[in-house]
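Example 3.
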Amino acid sequence: MSERIVQVDVQPNPYPVVIGPGVLAQVGPRLAERVKGRRALAITDSNVGPLYGQTVLDSLRSAGFEATLLTLPAGEGTKSLESLARVYDACAEAKIDRTSPLVSIGGGVIGDLTGFAAATWVRGVPFAQCSTTVEADVDASVGGKTAVNHASGKNMIGAFYQPQFVLIDINTLETLSARDYIAGLAESVKHAIIRDADFFAFHESNLDAIRSRDPALLPALLERNVQIKADVVARDERETTGLRALLNFGHTIGHAVESLMARMDLPWRHGEAVAVGMAAAAEMSVAAGRLDRADAERIIALLERIDLPVCAPLAEARADIHKLMQLDKKVAAGKLRFVLADRIGQATLYDDIQPAWIDAGLDRVLC
Ligand SMILES: NC(=O)c1ccc[n+]([C@@H]2O[C@H](COP(=O)([O-])OP(=O)(O)OC[C@H]3O[C@@H](n4cnc5c(N)ncnc54)[C@H](O)[C@@H]3O)[C@@H](O)[C@H]2O)c1
Ligand SMILES: [Zn+2]
């Protein structure tokens, strides 16, 4: 079987995530089936464009689209209002109307930016997402959260907006840097911890194949991630019941670590900071009496074996971490909320967090 399809069951428009080698070339025909317009604007970054831009343009053109490509600088800085303005200018130039699709080709940065442009240009145009990083394959491309950053914080300006479909071409992972590849795996471990103990064990027993990007294993790994994310999103699309909040396991301390490393001019990948955040959350879960010590050690050992960091050089920055945690989007009425693991495969959002648990978590991960 050459491709796997996971349906994301959001209403009123469920859509497929297609996973497999070479699926990038399906973008044109799949869009032609779903949209009326025959003009399309593809958006990518300066690393991904030269590698995969032409494949997407060829596919769009052979399906009858008049297609153009906008290439923006690579990096988180592109998730900005300034880049958004460039996308809108390109939409105007390409005469994108409500029937004409935008197509993202890239990781979470291009996906989030293009999705938000699609949600807002002429109050909404169709959107297809071609994912090219592990971070986007297992997490960012599924679920309809789109955004750009603001000076006051990450993802502050955004919308929930679902694509027509997502294409995850596993061949694109061959060119991804080792650092980005490994960092994205943190979200895969997160999905296993919060929802699926067997999937956690799958990581442990297939570690070499995962780390070496074995094409025989990648489809199954990515498919299970998309299933877990799609299931959570279908049950709680707008984060109203608390279920979707579980996806933030490791992210409260993780986001603080990410901001502080960036401030020190040693920017870490999001997944690296989340790995440290998950190690802290595992330790906190033990302190809270929720998780067995042995399971916390299993979590931390798996992260280490993947080559993800489990501590951050921020021992001097404890006070800053506390300050940043107060800015977390999960803070409700001034009260910190934390996702803790009850066991491997199950997590819960708690709002009765004791300072001693946070101390235990930080003691474990600050070095
Ligand atoms: N919307 C969501 O639900 C969600 C979830 C998780 C993360 N995110 C967002 O995703 C972003 C991080 O995503 P990311 O890690 O994919 O970052 P990214 O898009 O910046 O990609 C990482 C780097 O890899 C390069 N690259 C991408 N694909 C490549 C390929 N196939 N070959 C070679 N190089 C390639 C990019 O140019 C970039 O330099 C953050 O902004 C984060 O907020 C969003
Ligand atoms: Zn994340």
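Residues 62 and 308 are 42 Å apart (CA to CA). Residues 183-365 form a domain with the Dehydroquinate synthase-like, alpha domain fold (CATH 1.20.1090.10).
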